[in-house]
């Protein structure tokens, strides 16, 4: 059997039994493509550039390499056993129910808080366009729209994400095209900058290794969102082929969108220009090139990126919750499915996101900041669970069902161990910086609490099973 041919039978997990398969291949392809283009890239990358200077290109390349390895590992497991619980299901199979519980509910919490943050960001853009309108009204509108979208058939989510992703991809490709022309001195009214901005103003690493480390940490968390495609794949027409295709194109997507755009920006604009931090690197670059209405153009793109992330995160949170409940790791009501959609899980995930918005107004200095700190390093925790799970399941699958390995991790187990080492290194680097140290502490406490709860539930389940078996005997 060829590497791209799906096995005839795939072990669908229990959580997928009544979910529909309404996502088409074009939906899945565009979700995978657009998943790497978020507001963190358009706006958040400015802080990384301010810290690392031109060496931000190296930071994004290093973190991008780590993300590619993680996606390859996740793709291998998801192609072998597609499930809407994705890495949570894999962690349960490889390590134990407590691990699936911890990874799944930590990720659900992350997505719900992220929905609130994205709603706040999108509302801020709208109030800038429509002065005098209250932010809460825009937040409520966005939450209602995307909650409604996800309450309907999954194909509606797919259509929204398809067009959102198409707009984001179009914007980044257009930006890269303009940037490459400007770098080559071909764009009318511009001269080729050469290497002046790369080597001037303090050199390629103006703030030394400390600046590079800060830039590296900023870039790691900008890649969040890629995991959604493996959750969505379980509801696609051809889960195995969909995951395989998405994972195999991850390398050029990351190289083109992240590393490529960072290289264009720091080549064209001095890294320490105030506009890079104040307006965002993409707006600053377009302004530098004299592109009319650059700020408003990028505001539209950022708004689309935020709304796309809201839509995808509500979807991902609801499917993760549904999967956890189906495996006996959450309130049964959350797992109820109507018309192929876990509508109660969608509603609860949306309400939690809206609650995060309210907390940002009521308690911005304590409760809301605590929420932000607790989600600071969750994605790294999830990645570590993915790596450990793949290390265990790869060997198990090779023994029991080698035909399911239609996507294989490169140079196993060497690159899996290298990726785990990279994650440990990032954890260690987070301990060095005061801001990220607080995030690591908050995430650590949340992870520990979830792990203890998951372990207690696992032991109770095992005890009941043993008691039931003894009674039957």
Automatic annotation (TrEMBL):
Every Amino acid permease/ SLC12A domain range: 27-431
UniProt keywords, alphabetically: Amino-acid transport, Membrane, Transmembrane, Transmembrane helix, Transport
Q: How does it sit in the membrane?
A: Multi-pass membrane protein
Give the primary localization class.
Answer: membrane
The record, for InterPro entries, names: AA-permease/SLC12A_dom (IPR004841), Amino_acid_permease_CS (IPR004840)
Provide an example Pfam family for this protein.
AA_permease
The compartments listed are: Membrane
Q: Where are the transmembrane segments?
A: 28-50, 56-74, 105-130, 136-154, 166-187, 212-234, 254-271, 291-310, 344-362, 368-393, 405-431, 437-457
Superkingdom of the organism of origin: Bacteria
Name this polypeptide is given:
Amino acid permease
Species of the source = Streptomyces xantholiticus
Lineage of the organism = Bacteria, Bacillati, Actinomycetota, Actinomycetes, Kitasatosporales
